[in-house]
Amino acid sequence: MKLIICIVQDQDAGALIDDLTEQEYRVTKLSSTGGFLKSGNTTLLVGVDEKDVSPVLKVIEDNCKTRELTTSLLTVTMPGDTYIPYPLEVKVGGATVFILDVEKHIKI
Predict the structure, then answer these.
(1) What would the DSSP string read from start to end of 36-64?
(2) Of the chain's two ends, which shows fewer C-beta atoms within 10 Å, N or C?
(3) Terminus-to-terminus CA distance in the chain, angstroms?
(4) What domains can you pick out in the chain, each with its CATH number?
(5) In whole angstroms, what is the distance from residue 32 CA to residue 95 CA?
(6) How far is Cα 96 from Cα 11, in angstroms, rounded to an integer?
(7) Residue 70 near residue 87 (C-beta atoms within 8 A)
(8) What values do phi and psi take at 86, rounded to 5?
(9) What is the DSSP secondary structure assignment for residue 81, as one 8-state letter?
């Protein structure tokens, strides 16, 4: 058995969860926050048999596309000066996926 830990943007999570549950995969949703943009993320836990890892990864790939976002970082030129917004293009979306071996699975 494998545990798939999948971190996606909040805006991708709803459709991804719908598609996974539609295909009868059980999903646990955890709210999380990204470190760089400090925006909302969703962490999904999906326990599957080893043969189901590829189909689950395909569903994740179909639902979580990378896109570009323009944001601004605030910089300070000198202490006491005002903040100057600095536009920055970053890639957001997609998914970060970890696949772990499960030593033991107990359902009570």
Answers:
(1) SS--EEEEEEEEE-GGGHHHHHHHHHHH-
(2) C
(3) 17
(4) 2-65+94-101 (3.30.70.120)
(5) 13
(6) 15
(7) yes
(8) -120, 110
(9) S
Rounded Cα–Cα distance for residues 63 and 80 (Å):
45
Helices (H), the chain: 10-22, 53-63
Residue by residue, pLDDT tens for the chain (108 residues) are: 999 999 998 888 999 999 999 999 999 999 887 665 566 789 999 999 999 999 999 999 999 887 666 666 555 555 665 555 666 666 666 899 999 999 998 989
Q: State both tokens at 41.
A: 């993320």
How far is CA 65 from each of CA 11, 12, 24, 84, rounded to the nearest angstrom?
Answer: 11, 8, 22, 31
